[in-house]
Amino acid sequence: MVELSNKEMATILRELADLLEIRGENRFKVRAYYNAARRLTAINQDLHQLVATNRLKELPGIGKGITALIKETLENGYCSTLEEIKRELPAGLLELLMVPGLGPKKAHHLFYQLGIEDIEGLKKGLEKGQVRELKGFGAKTEQKLLASLEEYQSYQKLIILQHALLHSQELIEELKRYQGVLQIERAGSIRRMKEVTGDIDLLVAGKERAGIINYFIRLPLVETVTLQGENKGSVRTEQGIQVDLRVVSPAEFPAALQYFTGSKEHNVRLRELAKKSGYKLNEYGLFKDEQRVELKSEQDIYRILKLDYIIPELREDRGELAAAAAGKLPVSISYQDIKGDLHLHSRFSDGVHSIEELVQTARQRGYQYIAITDHSQSLRVAHGMSPETLQQQLGEIEHLQDKYSDIKILKGIEVDINSDGSLDYPDQILEQLDLVIAAIHTGFGQGKAEITERMIKAMENPYVKIIAHPQGRILKKRAAYQIDRERLMEKARETNTCLEINSSAYRLDLDDLTVRMAKGYGVKLAINTDSHHRNEFDNMILGIAVARRGWLEKDDVINTMEIEQLLSFLRGD
DNA sequence: GCCGTTTTCGGCCCGACTGTTTTCAGTCG
Which of A477, A556, A476, A566 has the alpha carbon at shortest distance from A523? Predict the structure, then answer.
């Protein structure tokens, strides 16, 4: 048996689907592979367990054929069906599909007629003018492909959520000034608060659509106009971000907002459900017997389809429709539930502000408590504190606690987990503290087994209460390190250790799916900002978004507790 | 390839936009 994660198996299925489609296979067969891949990434159960217990084919979308294919792949370490088709079709074809405007059918013609088998070949074919000679292609297609190829190569255009929220806010402010704009909302993955997005989708209800589109594409922020239609305008802003604006009538707005918020998978399920209930749902409205059903808001759509309202963060086809039908949706945690921030850095290590400034910022936000958790000695790049400096800091906190009686300042530390799993301070130091957070900052190159053991050893230390940014990823820069998540969760539950949702804009670690997995294990979470500057206190909403996407409720998160309850929890009472 | 309170065969979500086509295929969301 070979260790393959659900995600890796999903990748195999997707590659297989893409190649089959390029070859010209029945598209429903192809879709079956995509569906199976999607199912694998959407579940928290481990693939190997499902296979071992013979429950794999219980998953919807995974039947006899794909079950056999997965089993075979796990046994051999490779998928013979995929390898076979890869002998026939070069692997570089897969990357062609990443080019916007180029799908499997076009890739088919490019390969079978011109022998183009990768990005380089495409570029040459385009430059030599061969591509435009093909049937179904032309000069315009050539230009479009050249442009999108350049875009694809020039940069990976992922936008982190924080950036997307700010940039879309600017655009919304600008658009609101135009008279014809009656209503405006973010749509797409930003509205679902996904951690990264490819573009910004905005939806407007308004009169005189052409005027609105015209106003939009002439905004000062706009650099190039990529599309201008009757109901839609697409631009690239000076920050290089793609923005799509759609304009609909006020009557259409609720259905359009639902539609353009997605996810695509959620919408597919919702339309299936609508169809079964005798309705038709599209971006223009909800229809019964060709008659438009009047909708006042997006909520009406869910209500009419006999579902509890599903917040955008949950719309990922991860079981939310069934839960909504059964009245079992989570009461999602919200920003108002947060009583304090348990991971903050001061000037004692690599933070910008004094502890007092952090205290003041927290009081302004109405927090009941904060924890000062600077770095421990070995993390030199972050000015980790020697035991002596830590003692100084503890004195300072006591002094400030006397000064500010309306907020509890917890004495904390973010202690490094050494590469052997030991901690960077001895227990005699840790026992003096209210809160010990442990984290990995070095040795990312270790293998899965080593990292997992290291983490487990840290959790076995009785003083460790939270593991910070447990997967070590940096968005757009560094992938999560390999860690055995099942063992991590089991150990966290056993030792009553919390896992962190680190709200730092480039971390958002744990991610939404792993958060949900933690909840399934009964593991508690802490949503912290890891602020090094007081502006970063705002990042709490990003962590809340991850929590909501991970189906968390107030009671799953420790920093929703009142101070007395939290203190008793930290003491292990 | 998957699936089933009309089904083991015959469907599989739906519509806009684009470019190329002269009635539509491909891509995208």
Answer: A556
Task: Quote the pLDDT of residue A153.
Answer: 75
Any idea which residue has 């949706």 for tokens? A329
> Regarding beta strands A200-206 and A291-293, do their DSSP bridges make them parallel or antiparallel, or are they unpaired?
unpaired
> Using the CA of A63, which nucleotide's C1' is the nearest one?
B2
Q: What is the pLDDT of residues A107-130, one digit of tens each?
A: 999 999 999 999 889 999 998 888
Edge-first strand order for the sheet with A279-282 is A279-282, A285-288, A291-293
Q: Which of residues 269-288 of A touch strand B (CB under 7 A)?
A: 271-272, 275, 280, 282-284
pTM: 0.79
Residues 294-353 of A with CB under 7 A from strand B: none
Axis crossing angle, helix A512-521 with helix A540-549, rounded to the nearest 10: 60
A132 in contact with nucleic chain B (CB within 7 A) = yes
Measured in angstroms, what separates residue A423's CA from nucleotide B24's C1'? 67
Quick one: A305 and A343 in the same domain? Answer: no
Q: How far is residue A361's CA from residue A528's CA, in Å, rounded to a whole number? A: 15
Q: What pLDDT is attached to residue A555?
A: 98
Question: How far: A320 CA to B5 C1' (Å)?
Answer: 24
pLDDT of residue A205: 93
Is the C-beta atom of A443 closer than 7 angstroms to strand B? no
Q: Which nucleotides of chain B does any protein CB come within 7 A of? A: 1-3, 11-21, 25-29
Work out if A478's Cβ lies within 7 angstroms of strand B: no
Residues A290 and A262 in one domain: yes
* pLDDT given for residue A73 in this prediction: 92
Residue A184 placed within a domain:
yes
What pLDDT is recorded for position A241?
Answer: 87
In this structure, the answer to whether residues A318 and A382 fall within a common structural domain is no
Stretches where chain A sits below pLDDT 50 are: none
| Number of H-type helices and E-type strands within chain A | 24, 17
CA of residue A103 to C1' of nucleotide B10, angstroms: 27
**Residue A40 forms beta bridges with which residues?**
none
The total of structural domains in chain A comes to 4
